[in-house]
Amino acid sequence: MAYQKVNADQRAPGHSQYLDNDDLQATALDLEWDMEKELEEPGFDQFQLNSAENQNLENSETADLNLDPIQPATSPKGRFQRLQEESDYVTHYTRSAPKSNPCNFCRLLKIFCTAIILFISGILIGYYSHKNCPSNATSSGTLDLHLYQEILKTIQGEDIKKSFRNLVQLYKSEDDMEISKKIKTQWTSLGLDDVQLVNYSVLLNLPGLSPSSVTLSSSGQCFHPNGQPCSEEARKWSSQDLLYSYAAYSANGILEAEVIDVSYGNADDLKRIKKMKNVTNQIALLKLGKLPLLYKLSLLEKTGFGGVLLYIDPCDLPKTANLSYNTFMVSLNPGGDPSTPGYPSIDGSFRQHRSNLTSLLVQPISASLVAKLISLPKDRTTNGACSPLELPNNEERIVNMKIQTVTKFETVTNVVGYLKGVTFPDRYVIVGSHHHTAHSYNRQEWASSTAVITAFIRALMLRVKRGWRPDRTIVFCSWGGTAFGNIGSYEWGEDFRKVLQRNVVAYISLHSPVRGNSSLHSVASPSLQQLVAEKNKFNCPRRDQCPKTNISSEQIQDDADYFINHLGVPTVRFTYEDIKTLEGPSFLSEALFPKHATKIEEMDPFFNLHETVTKLSGEVILQIANEPVLPFNALDIALEVQNSLKGDQTTTPQLLALASRLRESAELFQSDEMRPANDPKERDPTRVRMLNDLLQDMEKSFLVQHAPPGFYRNILYHLDGKTSQFSILLEAWEHCKSLASNETLQEALSEVLNSINAAQVYFKAGLDVFESVLVGKN
């Protein structure tokens, strides 16, 4: 065809104001008017387009104007590209004039000149539209790594460090609202579309007026949780650390009983101890780690214990972590406001007054206090090896533990900001961090988290101000109430559950960017592990010296919990850790130590690690928010299921057969639908939208109804990076060994079986729908 008419009022769905260009539109309108005048002149009266050419015109016009949100722009030369491709345009579309016509030469000359003018005008218009409106192309899913790097190159460690130090100055206020308002002001000034403060009135369990204490009955010596003798001087020395050395939502009271060492408190430990002693209403000396704390406490409660002294063995920590005298805080809240379990804490909601979530008196204590209780020497190293703390079986220790906490309703505030997408504004990529919560440790980890998310927002908005926007909406969240059981994220999730179930495609956690400085640890859903591995390799400066990729799908302690376990949302988190921490027992991060600003700056003095985490997370966010087809891998989920069943002594033939069928369906889905959709030449907008809807809901099939306390409901996540079996099957097998009945094991097997079957049916139904659509079109 020769040219394309462009109406000034044509806009793509979700078209952004940043894509408008008045000068270009005016030029196009003038050109349209001139061409209409030309067509009215003699010689053009029989200029006609057949039906096939009309169809080409429509397709070309759509592609050039980017009305199709999926297909990328095919040429930078704009609306008149086909003039180049059809050199015989003049003879192809004009009739031959009679030889006797004296104006034949003039008319041919006029046609020739008109074609030349159109050709040059097309090149100029295409050039300037490409130059001045880069967002028109990039908003259609054609972003590549070069653009990602251009956005992220402005992120600098020094800027994150300055932001971190500014945030640290705010923590001195006990008012959670002040920090939230500062974050909102900063995000608004950076240019986010809509930044809101979302408040919830929730039930918090707070320390009493005086710190808890542990008293040796034999000597009458009284100790604070950090191992210091009970005295007014010791209380003043570190008053806040002593007050906040407690277990939130523990039972209150006084208990005098024998201390029984239960080690890590697993089923085998308890079975062994019950054969030796009467444990009813006694006090368990429990190590943190290896299993979720809530699960271990549930076992102790069922066994009959009345109290728990909880500690971390120094042998489980890196040598650089000198925490012998440090106490810590834990929360016994599985998630959300305890007064509104399963529903949001909004005005008018029924409130349950639950001052404690367990019948046990639970008190965290330092390793130095444990050493005093069992009368061990300070130096416990043997030939350079650390000797674990252990209470001799033949010795008896009677202690008196006193716990006093108070419960009251307080306001928890979330900061939520939006960057609206231009093509799929109803699909959300959520980026989560957390900020300081009043009435808890003055930890500086929140400042690290907030500084990182703010650095990414700043880099992103610099590009937005130049006219670019992501295809999908990015939602930035700074959560409150994290220390008390991820309360802010749970309440927001419950409040907007229906919308989030339908619209959220991924959650990127920036909860703990730097917890060590020796190893990058990546946690990702199975469907996103391939993407994360690619980012790790791409950001390694020398491929031959790249460390082994450390990626796993394991339980994490942060605000991603609700999105993983209740919405089945694919999740990614990058964190720098100490290698010793990764090699040691899992779940030590359940302990909240009072980490001060100097410690974080010691681990990362130039904030280069913070910069790396920000850029890695940013690339993942950009790719998920901009790729026409979500970068999720369906086959990896099926492979993960098969790997989780390998070597598992509880596996049945039915499970293995279902897992095999799931893999077959996933392979068909990957080859028949994903591969063509990733080819721009074969990409159909309707099918791509259907495909993305299937991809974002893949993990929902693996949410089981019942999981042990502290275990993920999403069975694709393992207890730690060292185990590959389904966690609920592992727990059920351990439970079965200690009981005569195997009912618990059968229930767990049924949960896993139904999940795998639901996933297989889901993929199969998706393939059937695509096939039906294809047949209908043909």
Automatic annotation (TrEMBL):
Residues 1-21, 60-82 are annotated as: Disordered. SUPFAM superfamilies: PA domain, Transferrin receptor-like dimerisation domain, Zn-dependent exopeptidases. Residues 414-576 form the Peptidase M28 domain. Signal peptide: none annotated. Pfam families: Peptidase_M28. It comes from the Eukaryota. One of its GO terms (cellular component) is membrane. Keywords: Membrane, Signal-anchor, Transmembrane, Transmembrane helix. It is found in: Membrane. It is a single-pass type II membrane protein. The chain crosses the membrane at residues 108-128. Belongs to the peptidase M28 family. M28B subfamily. PANTHER family: INACTIVE N-ACETYLATED-ALPHA-LINKED ACIDIC DIPEPTIDASE-LIKE PROTEIN 2, N-ACETYLATED-ALPHA-LINKED ACIDIC DIPEPTIDASE. This is Peptidase M28 domain-containing protein. It comes from Bos mutus (wild yak). The lineage of its organism: Eukaryota, Metazoa, Chordata, Craniata, Vertebrata.
